[in-house]
Write a structure and sequence with these properties.
CATH class of the largest domain: Mainly Alpha
Radius of gyration: 33 Å
Order of helices and strands: HHEHEEHEEHEEHHEEHEEHEEHEHHH
Number of helices: 13
CATH topology of the largest domain: Multidrug efflux transporter AcrB transmembrane fold
Structural class: alpha+beta
Helix content: 40-55%
Largest sheet: 4 strands, antiparallel
CATH architecture of the largest domain: Up-down Bundle
Length: about 425
């Protein structure tokens, strides 16, 4: 079989050269289009369901949220396992699918079941799906540096400007904010005054909610001109909350400031973010979608950040805290250097021992073509260019060189022996 292939190749060398050229072109195309990452993604094929019910202890969350969800998610096709975790105010359910299942097909199946399971949960409790990314999808972290700004202002800038801008980048699944304070209007009631005025706590809550609302009217025509009537009721400052009337006692309105105080504060935090021991920071984490090219996503994020910086307040700057592209570039550089060094060493050694340039070129040309063929197969089977796959290619090149040297040396000996006999 091998002898027949060699004989056919010698007789049809132009066909072989054409096939070689086509494989090189396709190999270069595969190198360009193969997703690049630093490390292989070995995370499970999972869909995360997140449910928030603040103020409830883990046992209530487990009984009224986590258990109804997990019990009704049973029976979804191609599911390997369902895991859950309950904590203060939050519930997480992890639906683990088989590795060959398409992630978006899996998310659609989970959503179908959630439409029914949501009816079994407490009122106003709505589960949501987590981002369509993996545990290794955190490709870029950044922090905000702004001397003179408080953490609440920076967190508002991150949540309402930078995060929305980065979520429009192609390949980005989610931008998670961390650090700082999420601003809140906090009403601190005095229980003694509530009892004195005979006002319930839920009455205070419902009244404040009802007064923070926009009410639509109708179209009013006057002198052949149409006017749209509406009532503007959104709360804009602390004083508007303080003056909300709760009820009237003897023609005297009882307002919020009569039963407590209103202040601007931050949401309860379970931790802080510190950078290099320099103090607390505010920033964000860019999460990549399934199957995206990490290097291209990071490059697009950096380009978007350059545009975002133009709209930041004076004195605010964005500093990268973690950039996976540095590791990706180092990985690619390592493979390039290894292949280049192997080509040079092999060429020199073969020329010194064989004193035959054409024989050395046979092995030298085989090395890059074999690497390109490896990228073709990686592209076919959906394997990313990461530190593990590229290291395997570099090691395989060494074995390929050994085999090439042995074959060329034996061929030279056979040709030399036939020449001497002749």
């Amino acid at each position: 079989m091998v002898k027949a292939i060699i004989s056919w190749s010698l007789k049809n060398k132009w066909i072989v050269i054409t096939m070689y050229t086509m494989m090189i072109i396709y190999g270069i195309y595969s190198v360009i289009n193969t997703p690049v990452d630093a490390i292989p993604d070995l995370s499970e094929n999972q869909v995360i369901i997140y449910t928030e019910w603040m103020g409830r202890n883990p046992q209530i969350i487990e009984d009224q949220v986590t258990y109804p969800l997990t019990s009704n998610l049973q029976g979804i096709p191609k599911v390997k396992n369902i895991r859950a975790s309950s904590m203060f105010g939050m519930s997480f359910v992890f639906v683990i699918f088989e590795d060959a299942v398409d992630i978006y097909w899996a998310r659609a199946r989970v959503l179908e079941r959630l439409n029914y399971a949501t009816r079994l949960l407490p009122q106003n409790v709505t589960p949501t799906l987590g981002p369509d990314g993996t545990g290794l999808g955190h490709v870029y972290w950044y922090t905000l540096h702004a001397p003179g700004y408080d953490l609440g202002e920076l967190r508002a800038l991150q949540d309402w400007y930078i995060r929305f801008a980065l979520q429009t980048v192609e390949g980005v699944s989610e931008v998670a904010s961390y650090g700082g304070y999420q601003k809140q209007y906090q009403v601190v009631v005095d229980p003694l005054k509530l009892r004195y005025y005979n006002i319930g706590l839920m009455e205070v809550v419902n009244t404040i909610k009802a007064n923070n609302n926009e009410v639509g009217g109708r179209k009013f025509e006057l002198s052949d001109i149409g006017y749209i009537i509406k009532s503007t009721g959104y709360i804009k400052n602390i004083h508007e909350i303080e003056n909300i009337p709760l009820r009237t006692v003897n023609a005297t309105p009882i307002t919020v400031k009569d039963i407590g105080s209103v202040q601007m504060g931050g949401e309860l935090r379970l931790g802080i973010i510190d950078e290099n021991g320099e103090g607390e920071k505010v920033g964000g984490i860019v999460i990549m979608r399934y199957g995206e090219n990490a290097k291209e996503v990071i490059d697009r994020v950096k380009t978007k950040l350059d545009d975002v910086k133009n709209g930041l307040p004076e004195g605010v700057s964005i500093k990268p805290a973690y950039d996976r592209s540095d590791l990706i570039e180092a990985t690619i550089k390592t493979l390039s250097e290894a292949v280049t060094e192997e080509i040079i060493v092999v060429a020199v050694i073969l020329f010194l021992f064989l004193f035959h340039v054409r024989s050395a070129l046979i092995v030298v040309i085989t090395i890059p073509v074999s690497v390109l063929f490896a990228f073709i197969l990686m592209n076919w089977f959906g394997i990313t260019s990461n530190i593990m796959s590229l290291a395997g290619v570099a090691l395989a090149v060494g074995d390929l060189v050994d085999a090439g040297i042995v074959m060329v040396e034996n061929a030279m000996k056979s040709i030399g022996g036939e020449t001497e006999t002749t």
